[in-house]
Amino acid sequence: MVIGFGSLLGIYLAERFQTTKAKVATPAPEPVQVVEQKDAHPEEVRPLPDISSEELAFRERALRVLEDFPKKSVLKEKDRELHKPPKELIDASGELGAIEDLLDKNPELTKEGLRFYRRCALKEDLLTSLRALCLHNLKTRAKKSGFDKKIRWSDFPDHLHRISDKL
Amino acid sequence: MWKNSFLLFVVGALALIGCQKNTTSGFSTKVGIVLDSTVPEDQRNLIDQDLYNLSQLNLSVTSSDLQVLNINSFSGSEMVSWFKTRVSYIVGESFDYSEQAYIVGTVSYRPQIYASTLLDNDFLAQNSLVTIMVNIGSALYRYGKNNSRVLTLDVGGQTLYIKSPRIGVIQIGEGLFTSWSVRNTARDTLANSLIRLSVFFHEARHSDGNGDNVTFPHALCPDWHDYSGNYSCDNSANGPYVVDSIMLKNLRNACTNCSNTEIQTFKAFQADAESRLLPNSTFKDVRPEQIP
Prior knowledge:
The complex is a heterodimer of chains A (167) and B (292). By secondary structure, chain A is an all-alpha fold.
């Protein structure tokens, strides 16, 4: 009986020691520096674990939206009425409106919003009008949130600045 | 008892609807703009509403904006007057100008003011693809001028001699009210009404100008441009696209309860208009020419 109890105690202590030892032996995970796009700003490089689920959801949505935004090539399609804005621009305005709603309601998404607008304004194959609107939104949001000094405004072409400043 | 109350409620509601309609119904006629019988009833009501909204404006705008439009203030009365000077008739999509226009004589237009920047046939062909809005009065004037002909147009029960770009006949199409609306909104919202007004003002600018710049024709977009190869740009700093831009910017301010989507649509349209303004654009003489 005494021997049996001593054995059990021994097994328990041995297992506990091994568990503790194993824990000490495993190295702590290093934060991963993630650069999602080659044109990302240094200040945009953030450790992946810092991204909240809301930010991640916004980022995924933003990527989809950017992918779907109208390209200049739509204007080359046959039988288009080119004296007035393309209908795709009206659709894109709807998306931008939804994004503005999200950013208004969730201030914690501001950085993601700025990142989205920056990418949109730099995407050369998009409609110029849309890029200019993205730049305008970037300027407005950056100023409001105090990030305007951290953005390299010279990255954007002059003609986009001219249009965006008119809005 | 309940039945009577319900009836009273229905009668009251109908009266209210009736009153609401009366405030704007026939407003275009009231300000002196003829809506042709080819304009469908629903579009007629919306145009009345649009012009009524215009008449109610009283916005503070920059002096440079006022300068482009040659007005002293952005007040409803002045804006209606500006518009009325340039647009007298609005016709519907089914209006066939080729059947209503007649060549009634030849005339020697002053050769030095003959225009050559845009072929009229191209202009008419491009505009016939989808009708959102076309200033057919000014297009027919250009046609006559380029071919030394005097034309008449039967519209609104009258025969008009087309002797000036200010003849002011605008054709509208269903596209103005459907594809031209903010997504997922009704046609009669304030935002959609104000956006339509910007299109009206764009077309109204085509009723101005003289010489090579008569009707303020659009310029050829250069190779680097989104609209390259098309006559969809302007080289006038006071041309139709600048008028468009000014209207969209200022009318947006009148839309105080607009949603983010509506605001973004205003801005997207304005960005499109601004993108069409070519570098080194200059102010052009807006005074309309006229043949005797």
